[in-house]
Amino acid sequence: MNKIISDFLKEIDKRNSHEPEFMQAVREVSEDLIPYIVSQDIYHGKNILMRMCEPERVVMFRVNWIDDKGEIRVNRGYRVEMNSAIGPYKGGLRFHPTVNLSILKFLAFEQVFKNSLTTLPMGGGKGGADFDPRDKSDGEVMRFCQSFMTELFRHIGPNTDIPAGDIGVGGREIGYMFGQYKRLKNEFTGVLTGKGVSWGGSLIRPEATGYGTVYFAEDMFNHEGKSIIGKTVTISGSGNVAQYAAEKCIQLGATVISMSDSSGFIHDKEGIDEEKLSFIMDLKNNKRKRISEYLKKYPNAKFEKGKRPWSLECDVALPCATQNEVSESDAKLLIKNGCKCVAEGANMPCESGAIKQFKLNKILYAPGKASNAGGVAVSGLEMAQNSLRYSWTREEVDQKLKEIMINIHKSCLEYGKGKDFVDYNKGANISAFIKVADAMLAQGVV
Ligand code: NDP
Ligand code: 2IT
Question: 125 Cβ partners below 8 Å, 6+ apart?
Fold first, then answer.
């Protein structure tokens, strides 16, 4: 079996050898999927995984814009349309200086599996640009978004490809891009999700990824007859996902002791309560400042410059910032310090060595494609509401989100349950694969 896997990976590597993040994502999925595919006559010999590893289409384009000093700036934009077997391409846009094809291909590949798990009819895609909105004025961000959409609009549409937010793309950026799309097409449609509530957005979409991650952690605890109530939680990131993961932990009665950004983490032993969290939300979302400013208001907390919060004693760790932010040695430290549950709010935050440690030590570990699927799931509900020209209440959307997370948990159990341990990674990979593979087989070699 190991030889079949390594031959497959060698073949994929030939075309993608300069894409380390993409190869990492493919490797992790292949180790679960190839043994399964080989055991199933309907999938074996159809080159189905190879087909899933090749994007249906990739567009790369120049994005010119003018900064506040009147200088002409050039960025690179992308959209990776990975797989449309079960629905139109769906997935976020990331604006961050590190964005490249490898990162977007890994995100698009993961998105295909994640979207399949949601049970909603969405294919997978991802896009973005190597643009950094953090040090730009509002006017610069608007001009960039307009220029980006001036090219992207011809490749997307409410029945073709429906982008949303990701790192560096929140409500403000979605607004500017929606405005430009509408102007170019003269159509008011659900072409993007994460829209404002008064112009087609869904209630609970901003909260959905963070809330869903915590619902999933609670589902894992409940399955063992335990609960997140009373647990100590360490969170990385302080953006959209981290903020609402923290909010849901607090609402459920857990104690959140850390949040972070790319400059370091804050440690508040007394716990980040609702008031402190609203200070962080204002700091990050309106003032757009660094997390270290938390100490000016709450001087009892500590700031650890340039570090991640995995050295803290905790019961639960929720990595909600970015890929490869938990190394194997971080994982060992977390386990040594008592951590029992890791649910990924971010995409691929744990390196392969870290996942190996979680499995060896039978930690409740949920891969992002399962635990952070609540965001895209509510995007799917936003699309449904747009098609119905109707909107559901907060309670209705939240209830549907909870049910979707419970269903994802069940799917993971179906294919991941062992004697005394649930391999959520394997469960998620196989369950997600089956739905996409069946659709691809039914649609022929296209
Ligand atoms: P935001 O841009 O709102 O926040 C990102 C946070 O992560 C910020 O605190 C940022 O710090 C930090 N961060 C980003 N890059 C790095 C880095 N290289 N090193 C250290 N810290 C970093 O993004 P989101 O909260 O939306 O996304 C966070 C993660 O969740 C990503 O992995 C994304 O793919 C994933 N995700 C997002 C979903 C969504 O609906 N938004 C859905 C599912 C997954 P700083 O401000 O200093 O840059
Ligand atoms: O990684 C993700 O699932 C997202 N960034 C959200 C995608 C979406 O279409 O809502």
Answer: 79, 80, 81, 82, 89, 90, 91, 108, 111, 161, 163
pLDDT in tens, 320-351: 999 999 999 999 999 999 999 999 999 999 99
362 annotated active-site: no
Residue 78 is predicted with a pLDDT of: 98
Q: So what's the pLDDT on residue 263?
A: 98
Task: Give the Å distance between the CA of 16 and the centre of ligand 2.
Answer: 24
**Which residue is closest in CA terms to ligand 2's atom 9?**
91
Percentage of the chain surpassing pLDDT 70? 100
Q: Give residues (CB < 6 A) around ligand 2.
A: 90-92, 111, 114, 164, 166, 193, 347, 375-376, 379
The structure tokens listed for 313 are 């004693």
pLDDT tier, 403 (very low <50, low <70, confident <90, very high otherwise): very high
| Amino acid 128: pLDDT | 98
**How far apart are the CA of 348 and the centre of ligand 2, in A?**
13
Domain boundary assignment for the chain: 2-52, 57-188, 208-371
Spatial CB neighbours of 118, under 8 Å, sequence gap ≥ 6: 373, 376, 377, 380, 404, 408
Residue 126 CA: which ligand is closest?
2
Distance, CA of 358 to CA of 341 (rounded, Å): 9
CATH number, span 208-371: 3.40.50.720
Q: Whose CA is nearest to atom 23 of ligand 1?
A: 167
Q: In sequence order, which residues have a C-beta less than 8 Å from that of residue 150 and are 6 or more positions away?
A: 180, 184
Instruction: Give the tens place of pLDDT for each residue, 27-38.
Output: 999 999 999 999
Distance between Cα 163 and ligand 2 center (Å):
8
Distance, CA of 32 to chain centre = 20
Q: Looking at 90, 105, 114, 126, which residue is catalytic?
A: 126
**Is 57-188's fold the same as 208-371's?**
yes
Q: Tokens 């850390």 correspond to what residue?
A: 258
| pLDDT tens profile 42-96 | 999 999 999 999 999 999 999 999 999 999 999 999 999 999 999 999 999 999 9
Task: State the Cα torsion 405-410-414-417 to the nearest 10°.
Answer: 90
What class is the 57-188 domain?
A: alpha beta
CA of 269 to the centre of ligand 2 (A): 32
Q: For position 165, what pLDDT does the model report?
A: 98
The ligand whose atoms approach the alpha carbon of 378 most closely is 2
CA of 150 to the centre of ligand 2 (A): 22
Task: Enter the pTM of the model.
Answer: 0.98
What is the atom index within ligand 2 of the atom nearest the CA of 379? Answer: 10
Ligand 1 pocket, residue 103 CB under 6 Å:
no
pLDDT score recorded for residue 1: 83
